[in-house]
Structure formats: C-alpha cells, structure tokens
Design brief:
4 strands; 2 helices; alpha+beta
C-alpha cells in the first residue's frame, strides 16, 4: 500500500476519535433526573451554571464555575448525577 494512503488512513482514524462524543448513558430518558432539580443540586454544592444542555451522548453538560471559582465544563450521567468528564479552562 502506498505510503500516502497509509498516512491518510491514519489521520482519518485518529481524527474520528478526537470528535467522538462523550457517552454518559444508554438508559431510557424516563429514568433521568429532572433537569431543574439536578441544576438546583449543583448550585447547592457551590457551582455557578452559565449554560446547561443535553448532549448527543446523553449527558447533562454544564459550563460555569466550581465552588472554588475555577471555570469548568462537566459532563454528568443524567441518571446517577455522577461526573463522567470534567474539563478545567483558564
């Protein structure tokens, strides 16, 4: 196989992994926590939520600040409420 094709295939495979959505649950939406109550619980824990959304990977995703004032992006399992992925931003 020519080297160009190998390089192109490697780049395509690697780039698709980079764009893969964070997957939080496959559970039926009837088992998910209420969005308003979930956000209220996070606020009680000291989070400031600037944006809240449901992702394609079935996560509750928040953008905002944690209790220490650090800017965060957190993906939560909507059934358990557990953080699946946390990203800190400057």
């Amino acid at each position: 196989m020519p080297m160009r094709i190998l390089i192109a295939m490697t780049l395509l495979i690697g780039s698709s992994a980079a764009f893969a959505a964070t997957e939080c649950t496959t559970a039926d939406k009837s088992t998910w926590q209420d969005q308003e109550k979930f956000q209220a619980q996070l606020k009680e824990q000291g989070y400031k939520i600037n944006k809240f959304k449901v992702t394609k990977g079935n996560c509750y995703e928040i953008y905002g600040f944690d209790k220490d004032g650090k800017k965060v992006e957190i993906y939560h399992d909507p059934v358990t409420g557990k953080a699946v992925k946390t990203e800190y931003h400057d």
